[in-house]
């Protein structure tokens, strides 16, 4: 189901141990530490592989996450806001990642810009509770979604490069 480079990247993402969600007090604090460590390692690995494609931060409680993700297509960078909340039943329930500015622009998206991960990612997540975390959601959820949907949206003219929109010549 996943290609060799995805398997290699996945193998480098730290697996999590603590099965705790936002309602679990000190256990959630422990889980959040594991999440940050895993995310930091994943971002470092991406940078080393020249595959840096997102930035995330969270609120103080670690229950609301937000940042930027980007996709390079024909040497142009397409950047989007990304956000998600940690579900109450986390980590049993995977987060629903949203790109609000793309809301309604593709069939593979739900209301509010939440990307569709039902068929491929959610069963994989369910088999790997509590070992998968936010870094895994980015690597196996958002990353593949961007790789499939953004080139299609660009080819259909639904997503355009910001420099082209503002009158600059982004084709050079």
Protein described:
The protein has about 170 residues and is α+β, with helices and mostly antiparallel strands. It has a single domain, classed as Ubiquitin Conjugating Enzyme (Roll), CATH 3.10.110.10. Helices cover about 35% and strands about 15% of the residues. It is built from five helices and five strands, in the order ααβββββααα. The chain has helices at about 5-10, 25-50, 120-125, 135-155, 160-165, and strands at about 55-60, 65-75, 75-85, 110, 115. The chain has a three-stranded antiparallel sheet with strand order 1-2-3, covered by helices on one side. A hairpin with a 3-residue loop joins strand 4 (about 110) and strand 5 (about 115). The protein is globular and about 50 Å long. It holds the Pfam family UFC1. E2-like enzyme which forms an intermediate with UFM1 via a thioester linkage.
List the helices and strands and how they pair.
Blueprint: H1 4-11, H2 26-48, E1 54-58, E2 64-73, E3 76-85, E4 109-110, E5 114-115, H3 121-127, H4 134-155, H5 162-165
Antiparallel strand pairs: 1-2, 2-3, 4-5
GO cellular component, one term: cytoplasm
GO biological process, one term: protein K69-linked ufmylation
Active site: 116 (glycyl thioester intermediate)
Provide a brief overview of the structure.
This protein has 172 residues and is α+β, with helices and mostly antiparallel strands.
Q: For the CA atoms, what is the radius of gyration?
A: 16 Å
H/E element sequence: HHEEEEEHHH
What is the topology, as strand order, of the major beta sheet? 1-2-3
Number of domains: 1
Kindly provide the name of the CATH class: Alpha Beta
Can you tell me the CATH topology? Ubiquitin Conjugating Enzyme
Largest sheet: 3 strands, antiparallel
Tell how many strands the DSSP assignment holds. Answer: 5
By secondary-structure content and strand pairing, the structural class works out as: alpha+beta
Helix content: 25-40%
Q: What is the average per-residue confidence, as pLDDT, rounded to a whole number?
A: 91
Number of helices: 5
| pLDDT < 50 stretches | 168-172
CATH architecture: Roll
Task: Give the distance, in angstroms, between the N- and C-terminal Cα atoms.
Answer: 37 Å
CATH homologous superfamily title: Ubiquitin Conjugating Enzyme
C-alpha geometry: globular
């Amino acid at each position: 189901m996943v290609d060799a480079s995805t398997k290699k990247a996945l193998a480098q993402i730290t697996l999590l141990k603590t099965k705790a969600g936002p309602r679990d007090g000190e256990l959630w604090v422990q889980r959040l530490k594991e999440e940050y460590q895993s995310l930091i390692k994943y971002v470092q690995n991406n940078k080393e592989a020249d595959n840096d494609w997102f930035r995330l931060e969270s609120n103080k409680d670690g229950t609301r996450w937000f940042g930027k993700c980007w996709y390079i297509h024909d040497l142009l960078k397409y950047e989007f806001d990304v956000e998600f909340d940690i579900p109450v039943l986390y980590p049993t329930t995977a987060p629903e990642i949203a790109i609000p500015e793309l809301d309604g622009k593709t069939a593979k998206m739900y209301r509010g810009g939440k990307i569709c991960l039902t068929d491929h990612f959610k069963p994989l997540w369910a088999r790997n509770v509590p070992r998968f975390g936010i870094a895994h959601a980015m690597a196996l959820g958002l990353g593949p979604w961007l790789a499939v949907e953004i080139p299609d949206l660009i080819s259909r003219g639904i997503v355009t490069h910001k420099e082209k929109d503002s009158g600059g010549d982004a084709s050079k």
